[in-house]
Amino acid sequence: MLSGIYDLPWWGYVVVALVLTHVTIAGVTIFLHRHQAHRALELHPVVSHFFRFWLWLTTGMVTKEWAAIHRKHHAKCESPDDPHSPQVKGINKVLWEGAELYREEAKNQETLDKYGHGTPDDWIERHLYSKYTRLGVTLMLFINFALFGFLGITIWAVQMIWIPLFAAGVINGIGHYWGYRTFQTEDASRNIVPWGILVGGEELHNNHHAYGSSARLSSRWFEFDIGWLYIRVLEILGLAEVKRLAPRLRIAEAKPECDLATLQAVINHRYEVMAKYAKSVKHLCAEELHKVREHSRVDWGPVKRFLTRGESEIKAQDKIRLDELTTKSNVLRTVFAMRSELAGIWARSSASREQLVTQLEDWCQRAEGSGIAPLRAFSQRLRCYA
Questions:
Q1: What local confidence, expressed as pLDDT, does residue 197 receive?
Q2: Of the candidates 187, 213, 242, which is a domain's last residue?
Q3: Whole-structure pTM value
Q4: Does any domain span residue 255?
């Protein structure tokens, strides 16, 4: 009786715990995140309801609450209104108390009304899943105990901590604090590896913030999105339909002048454009900084933050130091100015497409005539965007 229906070797219980928690994280990334919050894919009703039922059993999360809080996170990212930004609330707060932040925001009816639209509102949602959130996890406890005895209680405890730790803590915390950035988004999102198996592809958080409505989170050749693998299997079986993917950059022959196609490609891939700009001038900026460092208090940190985040995201004291630095280096002054002007092209919402094309062409001409080799090479590459 104490061992339950199944008496497994020690490693068998480990496998059971990993499998059960993996189904849960698959439900979070496929159903809650990509399907419900972002509508990147459609799921067959059977698959959709299975995930909804399973998440009720293993997390007690309400679909409307999760989707609303996540949508608000994207809309208010890194601001005081962001429900769980480590840039605002601190990494320790989000990493270790992310679930508490989630529960606190779930009490905000304004958030649910504004961002919770389009989520399930059928009879079973109103009368069971949303009404009795603790019943599911309690039922899961009894099921685990019946199957595996007292070791089933340990498995249940692992299930209960899995999402609060990895989703609410690691992804929302570390995913906005440490890691590498493929795209220079306006927020602090990062990609963290190699946690893919544990969090279903959600570790590619910077990629997701660059293209939030994409069903696939991987972008570079070495990135593995296991959630996308499951989606493709479901699609082959006729149980899912992908609606949106991140645009793929196409490189053609360089054009003598920028046109509407060039502009559209640059805007569609603006986060990648800014990442490549920062990478292309990185060594040049380091060399210039070395030349003037003995006459300036500026270190590499503020320079890197400006190149990767832009002027609006750097601190006031860093801006003063950068201004001091640009008075000592014409090259850095040009590189910084050109970065701001390039980012400003897609920020000018009132300009017509023809005006934006003219502005982009003017930017390329000035970059190529600047006498700065990395700027010239970057501009020529930009002309190949199609």
A1: 75
A2: 242
A3: 0.85
A4: no
